[in-house]
Amino acid sequence: QFLKQLGIHPDWQFVDVYGVEPELLSMVPRPVCAVLLLFPITEKYETFRTEEEERIKAKGQDVKSSVYFMKQTINNACGTIGLIHAIANNRDKMNFETNSSLKKFLEDSLSMTPEERAKYLETYEAIRVTHESSAHEGQTEAPSIDEKVDLHFIALVNVGGHLYELDGRKPFPINHGETSDDSFLEDAIQVCKKFMERDPEELRFNAIALSAA
Hints:
By secondary structure, this protein is α+β, with helices and mostly antiparallel strands. It has one domain (1-212). Helix content is 39%, strand content 19%. It is built from 8 helices and 6 strands; from the N terminus they run H-E-H-E-H-H-H-H-H-E-E-E-H-E. Strands 1-6-2-3-4-5 form a 6-stranded antiparallel sheet, sandwiched between helices. The relative contact order is 0.27.
């Protein structure tokens, strides 16, 4: 529904990933061009995040200039930012309606820095209104913008044969190594499993895949 309201033709849609086992992954329609992971922000995760950031700053990493990445400055907008990351890095595969508000946002923000994109989203009424209206259509009440929420969305995408984790709370994309169109879902789920393994007592993990309809 959210994609439709943003002016994206329904030949791609989000589907649930019911589990990480091969037989459950085989139920996901292919091809898959992005995976969104919902996970809890716990103390263990925050410790890992700090260590990961320091390690990458010290060692460096290869991030292609074509990766579309934006920072998150709006509270509780991680789902919207995850969705923008998923679509923006697959925009050549998407069919946008002529008056698509998301297409316009992406075109306007392509040359911006990750921080400028975040600021632009703050003032971009069309996406904010769509986010609010689709949040109210969900089964559970959406949290207010200021409410403290300990669940967070990230996007996993394939750009130029590399699997990137895009998280607006982090200073940069994370390159998780090589992938391909054929192996992308399995490779992305391997990254999701690492999140789960860091917090084995936690059960609040959920993944959805952006699949061809």
